[in-house]
Amino acid sequence: MGQQAKIGVKMALTYEQTLVIIKPDAITRGLIGEIISTFEKKGLKISAMKMKIIERQILEKHYAEHKGKPFFNSLVSFMSSGPVVLAIVEGLDAVNVVRKLVGSTNGRDADPGTIRGKYSMSQQNNVIHASSDSIVAKKEIELFFEKEEIFSYDGLNSVIYSRDELSNISSKNKV
Ligand code: CMP
Question: Is the Cα torsion angle 53, 55, 59, 61 positive or negative in sign?
Fold first, then answer.
């Protein structure tokens, strides 16, 4: 346990944005609403969203860490096989919160309450991608979204968070 946790000092909370991609299998199966609704009902804010077919070249960049793995070509083909929905989801500790809601990679192993646990039986066709950490999230958002496509709007956070928690949200991330 870290020293700060031991003596009960509050750790700073970070207001974060993370990228999710609702994959072609989920689009075909009509799961866009269910998935977006999971994030909305949790209290996360959707600050950008669009549907598109992602070019192979962009996918190869997005999934560069998997280049050379046996599933790489199949993954790129699957992800470019039809439209996807890309969204930016934001909130306090959003990268971690979204990863937990999404569940582990293999749908068959994912906890039953998670998005993959509820809707996937596959390791590849696992309905959704979510950024793995905050540094990756920044890169992925830059790869897929222009600044003008990202919106800030008032109202939500002031009912979702306590006054204490809100003090961690800078004025650039409006409540
Ligand atoms: P995602 O979160 O988009 O990140 C990488 C993707 O690669 C992952 O979800 C799966 O779709 C896919 N993937 C990871 N491991 C495997 C595997 N062993 N076999 C097939 N696909 C995989």
Answer: negative
Q: Is residue 119 part of a domain?
A: yes
Shortest-distance Cα residue to atom 13 of ligand 1: 124
Is the pLDDT at 8 greater than 60, yes or no? no
Active site amino acids: 129
CATH number of the domain at 52, please: 3.30.70.141
Does residue 55 belong to any structural domain of this protein?
Answer: yes
Which residue, judged by its Cα, is nearest atom 12 of ligand 1? 124
Whole-structure pTM value = 0.92
Q: Is the CB–ligand 1 distance for residue 123 below 6 Å?
A: yes
CB-ligand 1 contact for 71 (6 Å cutoff): yes
Contacts 24+ apart (CB under 8 A), 100-104: 101/38, 101/39, 101/42, 102/20, 102/128, 102/130
Does a structural domain hold residue 156?
A: yes
Task: Write out pLDDT tens, residues 111-128.
Answer: 999 999 999 999 999 999
pLDDT band for 10, please (50, 70, 90 cuts): low
Look at the chain and report how many structural domains it folds into.
Answer: 1
